[in-house]
Design a protein that fits this description.
This protein is of the alpha/beta class and 195 residues long. Helix content is 25%, strand content 21%. Strand 8, helix 5 and strand 9 form a beta-alpha-beta unit. InterPro entries: ADH-like_C, GroES-like_sf, NAD(P)-bd_dom_sf, Trans-enoyl_RdTase-like. This is Alcohol dehydrogenase-like C-terminal domain-containing protein.
Length: 195
């Protein structure tokens, strides 16, 4: 196992409207029972500032040639693990980004037509804590600490007015690609009574 470095690079914006600053920050030291995972992340989202603030190391313009951008970032290397929590459907391109012996884990069904070679694997996974109660309890016990230390960061949200009537407005904005880097929410109890 490689030694854990003392520090890591971090690209920050010290205050709203200022330029990026490259700094070094201490690497989190795991406590007994913790796991430290090195993450190589690529965010496919135009909300670059927000993603960089979350710790994403590379941002790919999803309106450009995504495959070409990722190929250049990898510089001939493959990705050992891909965890796909939102994408559908899984494509052959994702499989081709895997290093030999690499593994793709997906929360969506994996097509049987994918070509796997050189020990590459694709697995459907389920993160339902109600099915894995011990793991769920351990995770939920750590959540306050993870939020406090910034290990997990809350999702930004925008509330749409009008209760359930706001859903159509939100869907139209999503279809027009006017939402990026945050979730839209409605409060059902704020739905006006019909006349």
């Amino acid at each position: 196992m490689a030694a854990i470095p003392e520090t890591q690079k971090a690209l920050i914006i010290p205050e709203a409207g200022s330029q990026y600053t490259l700094i070094r920050r201490p690497v989190h030291r795991p406590s007994p029972g913790d796991v430290l995972v090195k993450i190589e992340a690529i965010g496919l989202n135009p909300a670059e500032d927000y993603l960089l603030d979350l710790g994403v190391t590379h941002v790919v313009d999803r309106n450009g040639d995504v495959k070409d951008q990722i190929t250049k970032l990898l510089n001939g290397a493959g990705i050992k693990y891909i965890y796909d929590a939102v994408h559908t459907p899984i494509s052959q391109d994702e499989i081709d980004f895997l290093a030999p012996g690499g593994r793709l884990l997906s929360v969506v069904d994996v097509p049987k037509t994918l070509r796997l070679s050189d020990g590459r694997e694709v697995t459907s996974v389920c993160g339902a804590t109600q099915l894995f109660k011990d793991t769920g309890r351990a995770l939920f016990a750590k959540l306050p600490e993870f939020f406090e230390k910034g290990i997990i960061k809350p999702t930004r949200i925008e509330k749409i007015e009008g209760g359930l009537n706001g859903i159509l407005v939100g869907l139209e904005r999503l279809e027009a690609k006017q939402v990026s880097g945050y979730k839209l929410v409605v409060v059902p109890s704020e739905t006006p009574e019909a006349n």
